[in-house]
Amino acid sequence: MAKYLLLKHYRGAPTPVNDVPMDRWTPEEVAAHVQYMEDFAARLEGTGEFVDGQALSPEGTWVRSDGEGRPPVTDGPFAETKDLIAGWMVIDVDTYERALELAGELSAAPGAGGEPIHEWLEVRPLLGAAPTITE
Amino acid sequence: MTPVDEALLRAVVPTVIGVLGRRGADFAAAEDAVQDALVEAVRVWPDDPPRDPRGWLVAVAWRRYLDAVRADTSRRRREERVEDEPEPGPAATADDTLQLYFLCAHPSLTPASAVALTLRAVGGLTTRQVAQAYLVPEATMAQRISRAKRTVSGARFDRPGDVATVLRVLYLVFNEGYSGDVDLAAEAIRLTRQLAAAVDHEEVAGLLALMLLHHARRPARTRPDGSLVPLAEQDRGRWDTRLIAEGVDLLQGALARDRLGEFQAQAAIAALHADARTAEETDWVQIAEWYDELVRLTGSPVARLNRAVAVGEADGPRAGLAALAELDPSLPRYAAVAAYLHERDGDPVTAARLYAEAARSAPNLAERDHLTRRAARLNTERRG
C-alpha cells in the first residue's frame, strides 16, 4: 500500500474544461457537486482506501520568525502568489495507477450545467517510513 | 449475554471517582483507575452482569488503584497507609459530582483541555470516543487529558468552584454538535441535566433550557443530504414539542428568580422562535429586546451581530443595516449578515457579492455550501 495526496487548487492549476465559479452555478448544481464529493469519500471509506480529507479556507497569512524574543512577522496575502490550495484528500492504495484512476474520478465532479468540471488535480506521493529490509 | 447499559455505566462514573477520592486517592490516579474499571466492565458484564453496578465499579477501581500505587515504587512510603483496607466512608453524594465538574472546568485549564477532561471524568467517555468526537488522533487526545490532569492535580476536591466556568465548558461541548459517532449535543444535555440535579442555580437551568430548545429543532435543521436549512425555511412540524415544552418550563422557573444571566437570555430568544407557528409569526420586536439584554450582559460582538439581524426583521432591513454599520466588518459572519440584510432590502447584486464573500470565509463546509447556494440562487434569478 502507498499513500497519495490528491491536491485541489483554488488557483495555480491549469484551467479546467468547465470553468465557471461556483457562485454562478444554480443551487441544484452546487448541491449535486457537494453530493458527488461526499459519495466519493464514502465509497473510498468502504473500499478501505480513504485516509483523510480536508477543505481549506482561502484566507491565509504568511508568517516567519523575526529572531529570538521578538514576535513573528506576518505578511501577505501576496498578490503574486500563483498557487492556492483548496483542500486535499489522502488515499492509501495498492498502486500508482489506482491513485491516478481515483484522481480522475474526483476531477469529474459535476459543475455548471451538470457537466463534469474536469478540473486538474495534483497527485503527490507521501514520503513514508524507510523499509526495514532493503537488500 | 446482556448488552451493557452504557448510559447507566457512564452515569455512575463521577460518584465512583468521588468514592476513591474520599478514600485518599488523588484525582489523577482515581480517574485512571475508574477508566480501567470501565473498560473491564464492558468486557465482563455481558456474561456476568453485577447485582450492584456501582459497588462493582468501586471495588474494581479501588483494586486497580491499589495495584497502581504498589507498582509505583516512588510512592513506596505511602503503601503502608493504603494497605489498610479503608473505612467504607460516607456514600458518594451529589456534592462529589459537583466537585468533579468544578475540577474539570478549573480556570487553570484551556477550554480544549477542560472539555476533554469533563467528557472523560464526568461523562465517562473513553479516550477513543473523545478523540473521535473531536477528530484528532487518540494519542493526541490521551496527551491532552493527562496534561489536563497534571494541571489540576494540586486542586482539592473540597473547594467550591465557579458555576460559570462549568457552564462555559458544557456550552462548548453542546456547540460541537454531532459530527462523529458520539453525539456531543446529547452528551452535553445529559451532563447539564446531571449538574442541574446537583446544584440549584438559575443559569444552569437557563443553559439546560437553551440546549433543549436548540435540540428540539435538530430534526428540521438539515436536509437528508446534510445541507443546512435556515430557521425561516424549517418545517416547524418536525420540531420536538416535548423538548420545547420542557425547555420553556425550565426557563420560566429560572426567569421567575429575577437573576438574569446570558444563558437565560439566549434561551428566551430560542423560546420566542419556538413559540412562532410560522416564521412570519416570530415576535422579532421582543427578540431584539432580548438581544439588547444579551449585549448588556456580555458585550459580545456575536450578540451585537445577531441583534442587527433581529432589528432588521423588527424595524426593516435599513434599520438592520444601520445597526450593522456600527460593528467591526472583520467579525466572523459579518458578510453573511450584511448579505442577508441587503437581500431583504431588495439589492440582489450586492447581496450575491456579499454571500460569495461570506462563503470564502465560512468556518465550516456546511455553512460554506449554504452561502454559496444563496449566492448561486440570487445570480440565477437575476439571469432569469
TrEMBL record, chain A:
InterPro entries associated with the record: Dimeric_a/b-barrel, YCII
Domain YCII-related: start-end pairs: 28-107
Superkingdom: Bacteria
Coiled coil: none
Pfam families in UniProt: YCII (PF03795)
Disordered, as annotated region: 58-78
PANTHER family tied to this protein: BLL7171 PROTEIN, BLL7171 PROTEIN-RELATED
Family: Belongs to the YciI family.
Name listed for the protein in its UniProt record: YCII-related domain-containing protein
Organism listed in the record: Geodermatophilus normandii
